[in-house]
Amino acid sequence: MPREPLPISTRLETLSVLTADGQLDRALEPAVPHADLRRLYKTMLAARRLDERCLMLQRQGRMGTYGPSKGQEAASLGVAYALERDDWFVPTFRELAGLLWRGWPMHTWMLYWGGHEAGNAVPPGLNDLPICVPIASQCQYGMGIAWGCKLRGGGRVCVAFCGDGGTSEGDFHEALNFAGVYNLPLVMVVQNNHWAISIPRSCQTRAATIAQKAVAYGIDGLQVDGNDLLAVIAATREAVDKARTGGGPTLIEAVTYRLSMHTTADDPKKYRTDAEVREWEPRDPLPRFRAYLQKKKLLDAKIEQVIEEEITAELEAAVRQYEQQTVDATEFLRHVFAEPTPELRAQLAELEAHLAARRPARPPAPVS
Amino acid sequence: MPREPLPISTRLETLSVLTADGQLDRALEPAVPHADLRRLYKTMLAARRLDERCLMLQRQGRMGTYGPSKGQEAASLGVAYALERDDWFVPTFRELAGLLWRGWPMHTWMLYWGGHEAGNAVPPGLNDLPICVPIASQCQYGMGIAWGCKLRGGGRVCVAFCGDGGTSEGDFHEALNFAGVYNLPLVMVVQNNHWAISIPRSCQTRAATIAQKAVAYGIDGLQVDGNDLLAVIAATREAVDKARTGGGPTLIEAVTYRLSMHTTADDPKKYRTDAEVREWEPRDPLPRFRAYLQKKKLLDAKIEQVIEEEITAELEAAVRQYEQQTVDATEFLRHVFAEPTPELRAQLAELEAHLAARRPARPPAPVS
Amino acid sequence: MALLTMVKALNLALAEAMRADPNVLVLGQDVGQDEGVFRVTEGLLQEFGPNRCIDTPLAEAAILGAGIGLGFTGFRPVCELQFDGFSFQAFHQTENHVRRFRSRTRGRYTCPLVIRMPYGGGIRAIEHHSEAPEATYAHLAGLKVVIPSGPRNARALLRAAIYDPDPVIFFEPKAVYRSFREEVPDEPETLPIGKGVVARPGRDVTLITYGAMLRVTLEAAEELKDGHGIDAEVLDLLSVAPLDGELINASVRRTGRAVVVHEAPRHCGVGAEIVARIVEDSLVYLEAPVKRVTGYDAIIPYFQNELTYLPDPARVVRATLETVRF
Amino acid sequence: MALLTMVKALNLALAEAMRADPNVLVLGQDVGQDEGVFRVTEGLLQEFGPNRCIDTPLAEAAILGAGIGLGFTGFRPVCELQFDGFSFQAFHQTENHVRRFRSRTRGRYTCPLVIRMPYGGGIRAIEHHSEAPEATYAHLAGLKVVIPSGPRNARALLRAAIYDPDPVIFFEPKAVYRSFREEVPDEPETLPIGKGVVARPGRDVTLITYGAMLRVTLEAAEELKDGHGIDAEVLDLLSVAPLDGELINASVRRTGRAVVVHEAPRHCGVGAEIVARIVEDSLVYLEAPVKRVTGYDAIIPYFQNELTYLPDPARVVRATLETVRF
Ligand SMILES: Cc1ncc(C[n+]2csc(CCOP(=O)(O)OP(=O)(O)O)c2C)c(N)n1
Ligand SMILES: Cc1ncc(C[n+]2csc(CCOP(=O)(O)OP(=O)(O)O)c2C)c(N)n1
Ligand SMILES: [Mg+2]
Ligand SMILES: [Mg+2]
User: Is the complex ipTM more than 0.95?
Assistant: First the structure.
């Protein structure tokens, strides 16, 4: 048999549970308690509202450049829901809904985009990493964490996120390759939102799907409708269970769409059509999930109003807390090492003298 | 259809023409003129002899650390044979046979391993790159060259080499991804010699084959018996033709074996069994190709003797030339930039003064 | 003459070079349709098409690797890295290959690349968008490292960089991109790489700087003059590799005193090299220690506190006063 | 007491730390079965098994990335990069994360990694096996950069590095790996990171160096004494970040003269920082310019000509004589 096709031994599948027009596949519908369904909806809506508020704060000059998550809430929320609290959660920067579910306070998110290191304050008790900016670099430490989970025993898993654009980086490749070699409990979730700033998915790789990249690492690949919260939960549960029980890594491609701009510094009109956005709007995860809950009679106007009011209250409190954040001007010099070096002590003294000499004192940080 | 397998649209095949025990698949046998077959044999043998001689020179302290190509001759030779002279050839460091076919003088190879930059002297008229040491880094400029070929038009292609170990590096991934996106005339040949120093192929990636990594880039993958010169020629011709006519990149996995040590600084007894090596010896490309030529009556004792004598003569001349190489002690300061900077001129003067002050003059370079 | 921001001046230099030489290519993330995240490549895709203004996937090392290979095939690639903070993803290609090919092959293969990137702090950006890694590149033999300080010299230096037969790291101070406009002549203009200029003549002390810190230092010089009667000479180095030692030493020999200002961290920064050059050539002229006003040896704070980190005129004034009063 | 090469001394330090703390892991290419290409990890796989002495695929950035993640889960990873010349493949992980996590999270996550790598030239190796990139790392705030000079301090410093709560780049001079043996005490020994030592006391001039250049400099000091009656003090810095400015300045204040010796290129090298520190603190004591005897600002030649590039005692003697006779 001197010329024959090469067989591929890993699983490569695509999965959806609830279609955009509300058709539910009952066989695949994940078991989620009703109370959780409501909480999930509330979290998704809270993420949307927080996102909108951040955009507004940015426009008012009360926040820095902001990167919205609009339209991608289901992908990170479904993943977060499928995890245990002490599993590891390694975000990039579009996992707002997932972070809220994990327990991150709204104002911490604001602080991050408002230019405060306090925005990286991982809530106590959570095994979460802060936002990661260098694209795909987080795949590597996500892989390392998964490795630590495996070596420690105890069945913890690590979920790491990446964007479709990030799959072009060497870090993505190296991390998944290691995860395969050591059979690590890593679930790598690629939020394929179809754009890396102005570069469409089709120009980032010639592969027809991101999921098929799993073949390169001999691991399973699962493409899932990332705007279908139920499908994301189902897919993640499957991958997490497998990872927890020694079955190794999975690459999940969550197909979603960036309904907003890349960041507030970006003008998507330069590179994509309104038509494309309009095409995706019906697949927005929020109304889809809402309709599902309505069908299940878990939402009515009354409940929705309560939810909205609760979110508004939380949001107002968060904005207040955010805007009250003070800046400790010398703190950055005290966290370079566990023990400051003599040189850093000297530089701290230099800075303190400089700050003291400045009259009138520098006004408080211009958050507002 | 909410859960279904993902189809893969690229071709993934495995190919051999002449089995280890001499069975020939006539349908796949590439057309190679008899004169070329003899020249190919002579080149393969010359590579083997040069390799042996370098090992000996190293043991005698007349050369630096040496990285042998023994057992891998067919993989680079077959590739080189399938190219046009003005195609681009981007080696790593186990492509000795291919470089000899391309026209690199034996003594240049020796100079490289003997610690002379003259070992990088690409023969005039060839579009070849010198040896590349940082593993997989050459994939990137190979990709860039292929891109240049495409932009220039004229049907030139670029062949770049990499080891199985090199496929773990981010550079490999990024380069192939770009090649796919821009549909570049790049033939990426991975010499899978089953080891990256002491790390066996199975520990470098969980993928069952290297060829299947092509799926990640949406390009064709071809696994070929790399110790079967005919199969390598056939596979490369196919990939090169495709590249030349706008069909884009191909990943070729040439399955071969490193019959010798990683380099002379390495002791393979520490990590692999003799049994494994003995298992591969019958698949040594040299006797296999010799037997093929004998069957074809293209070799007999007489011809072989002539060939051996010619090679010996060339080799002796090359060793002489190598050992006569002088060292220009200040040359390295004259090739930093096209025009030396003032600082470099000052440093050159400093060095010249230093060399002049040294009495007695430094003895000629200790090659022997 | 046109009154241009640095962004527009750089855009002009690119367009001019691309018009003059069909081998000049621009490649990088979002440089095409999006015209660059800072719009430096505005109009290039439209004028020169997708084979000369090339949008790439997100992989910095591949952008440089492609640039190297394109260079071998006769092109003159201008590679854009989106931010200096992400240039490290490609650092191995720079160190292993870009800077070495000429030496490795004794001129047979060269890397006439320009590697452009937005540089430095001061634009209230998120982490990794405010670094100043010029020393990291300046230390690598085989690279030229250029940092313009205003629209006019940016345009002239980018032109020089594109025509330079060797690789040039071209740092574009983000804080200067749109902060002011300058008259830029209609005719193409070139400045020699490796030569600094006297940005403000003076007699009492030499303030040595480059990039966005030039404006800070000039402001300090005004304050020194007005507030303290000190007449500071300000040097704008424009390039940190090669470094214009002649200019520096000539000035310091006149003034006897020097202060170096840069936004990068102090330890092993370019400031140290400047001090070493002064000591080597002009020690006997020195009447006071050379002070370094620099970023601190810490991670640059997130933007709420970024201005504490970056040298400001007050710090320069303080240091200069100490130097003059030594 | 045992008479050990540096390779054996480093091996001892690793084994001791792994015995004492089950969280200490070693990972890298060929560190297991092969025991490291220089055999520094000899016996570790056998004693500690494949979960603590881990052979990895060929991907430097992943080795560091794994180290970061393992650190978050409570391990103390000692990452080996096979040669300093290939550390740049992982440079973005070092710059973006290893050095930043403590600052980024205000101590919530830290990177107590040791990143070991063979360092420097002098072993007749092929390209990329002879670099000296200490300045590149020393400039990155958040990293400690240690360079031992002999078996005994190598063992004591590696121990210190492993127990250090912050990331340490640990450069092992290849030329010293097996070039001599030293008595190394049986009991674990620690040296503080950031402190240099007086390797040879003297009165006339201060020679400042580290790593493999210590032996070269000591040889020069002997020659200066015997041939010229000059009594040179030799400082062995042991760490270039932090830099022991106190030690340097104390010595220079006594001798009034200094020469810096390192094998890395001169431009923006650690030598410049040393000069700057001397000028800042001790200018008035200086009786001559501080000379730098360093590698040239070129790609280090292939090994036939490598010794021309590396500082040798003759160059140190020449520079010192010029300094003393200034
Ligand atoms: C290494 C690196 N290069 C460039 C950037 C600049 N950048 C920020 S986001 C982005 C696009 C990311 O695309 P993708 O991974 O698809 O994530 P998305 O923004 O779509 O969520 C780029 C290029 C970066 N942050 N890091
Ligand atoms: C980036 C990089 N890391 C490490 C090394 C050291 N090294 C030289 S060869 C080698 C193994 C290469 O394995 P493979 O790619 O399979 O090629 P082979 O040696 O088997 O031909 C290693 C790790 C290197 N040269 N470059
Ligand atoms: Mg995206
Ligand atoms: Mg191999």
Answer: yes
